[in-house]
Amino acid sequence: MLDRLSSWVVRARRGILAVFLILGVLSAFLMAAVQVNYDLTAYLPQDMPTTKALTLMDDTFGYTGMAQVMLEDMSIDEILEMKAQIAAVDGVSMVMWLDDVADVRAPLSTLDASVVQSYYNDGAALLTVQFADSDYSERTRAAVQEIDRLTGDNAMTGSAVTAGLLIQSSAEEVLLVVLWAIPVVLIILLFATASIAEALIFLFVLGVSVLINMGTNAFLPSISFFSQLSVAVLQMAIAMDYSIFLLSRFREERANGTDPVVAMTAAVKKAFLSISASSTTTIAGFVALMFMRYTIGWDMGLVLAKGIVFSLLSVLLVMPGLALILMKAIDRTSHRPLLPKVGGYARGVSKCRWAVLIVCVLVVVPCFIAQGQNHFVYGESAIMASEGSVLAADKARIQEKFDVYEPLAIVAPTQDIATEREIAARLSEVEGVASVQTLANVLPKGMPESLLPEMAASQFRADGYTRYVLNLSVEQETAACEQAVADIRAIVNDVFGEEAGVVGGASSVSDIREVVESDYTVVNAISIALVLLILIISFRSLLLPLILVLVIESSIWINMAIPYFQGTDLSFIGYMIVSSIQLGATVDYAILLADRYRGQRALGESPREAAISATRLAGESVLTSAGILTAGGLTVYFVSSISGIAQLGLLIGRGAALSGFMVLTVLPILLALLDRLITKRRKMQ
């Protein structure tokens, strides 16, 4: 079977290349049709409170975007004029300020100071803007941009502003990340390969597979912005191993004096099982993500796994023919590999093996504990508002003058005015709630609802439901905010049962936290179990796979503990996704070295010498693979302005480097020390 397949791939090389080129071009056009989702709440399970509340809100009032605009150094008349201009912007539903709750023509000193300070403080006015559509609609984005133009250097914040910046940054950075990654990866390939043409062939073949993967995303309902921004670089970096392995086999066959066509046929046959096995562990790590209840894992797992399959097909079908077509160019541009040899390093590690193991234990054990003690963040605002960004700066400017603005909305069955006042009073007593607005406390006592302007009434009444608008004085992602949301939900459930819902960034974060923390245990267990199962089948051993997985898991613990020791926040979604990616993508390094070790032991070398030889023989491949994935991850980190995406890149890049280091340093020592157990089990089998 493999003989016929290998022969067909070589014989039909021009036709195969033409088919993949056509698919690549078509996919490039399809990329424009890919729907990208930026709303993290869309991935929550249907039975979560936030999902139910969003559906209820959308069916009654519509789930509209919100923003805050702070105007400085303006008179009352100028503020009112600017308010009118903002209200006239297409896509703006309503603008609220002090004049909606008090007579601003009267001296401000005669008004309730606590009310005034919520809207006007120290020469600054804070306007709340409600949009006609959701935070993520094009109309809302255009409205935010127009308000920004109207207000000039004044500060803006809020969910609509965050969503707009997220969409804008993602659109600008998709191509930018790839354009930066290509030269970085090319430089590493020039050091690692034996020919300049080889390096270019690698990039071309994997580039086609990336195009096909990104284009076929158009057939999915949507993909997350996480996938859109990171998958291209990750796919190219992770799958580069397959290309290197195939052409290395080809060079070995040619070195024996074999005809190039015959040599390539043999190379495809010999590389097929190794490349397939290597890709299987990688895909297993991605498939584990698809078991998340928070379905962004399904999204990223599917897109990444699909990408590895396309990469595998491109390497096995396209690369053989392309290499033969460009064989003269490969020969003309050949050079010796420039990567450093690791034989001396391997001997040094072997001599210091006990010290290395002691240091490893002293590092890994605290890191295992620390990686679970990170301060995790879950929401969209934390992913976007990195320190030093315009969004973070504007938020800080507003909070210098006013309290924290964290809006929540409750949609509940309409009650009589007296009951609504009582409910609003109970909500106001919750620690962390700065204000509660509903029709009952906006409507002057004794005034019938029928006399209230229809526009004002429609903000609070619709289809038998009432909207309560709350403002929290506590930041998202804090224990105080979590407690406030829990207390608010308790009151809502006590009064309305399941007929009401709470909507807002703070409540969404609470639900996302609940789901992904339970997901982590499941995903981690499944990814480890799948990888272990594949390794047990491949090596026909239990102990050896456990050693390999332990080494990679140790590097994951170190990687994830670094943010804890740095005192920086860590995105839990990134933490979970990278844990699976790092295991699936870098366990190949350990497999390669262990395979080399077993080969050297079969040749009669002692455990210690076999460990040194295995490190020397596998070192170049491990350095290349880890170097490319590190470079790809760090490119995302340095290029992306989206904090959550940049952190994802940093974790992947640093994780690949740590995995490579642990495989070349700790794994050889463990293999030599546990050789008797490994060998005994093999003999028994």
From TrEMBL:
SUPFAM superfamilies on file: Multidrug efflux transporter AcrB transmembrane domain (SSF82866)
Record domain Membrane transport protein MMPL: where: 43-329, 452-682
Pfam families noted in UniProt: MMPL
Cell compartments where the protein resides: Cell membrane
Transmembrane region(s): 174-192, 199-220, 226-250, 271-296, 308-330, 572-594, 615-639, 651-674
Keyword flag Cell membrane: yes
Record key words, sorted: Cell membrane, Membrane, Transmembrane, Transmembrane helix
InterPro entries, A to Z: MMPL_dom (IPR004869), Mycobact_MmpL (IPR050545)
Cellular component terms per the entry's GO annotation: plasma membrane
Superkingdom of origin: Bacteria
Topology relative to the membrane: Multi-pass membrane protein
PANTHER family: MEMBRANE PROTEIN MJ1562-RELATED (PTHR33406), MEMBRANE PROTEIN YDFJ (PTHR33406:SF13)
Name the UniProt record assigns to this protein: MMPL family transporter
Protein species of origin: Candidatus Ornithocaccomicrobium faecavium
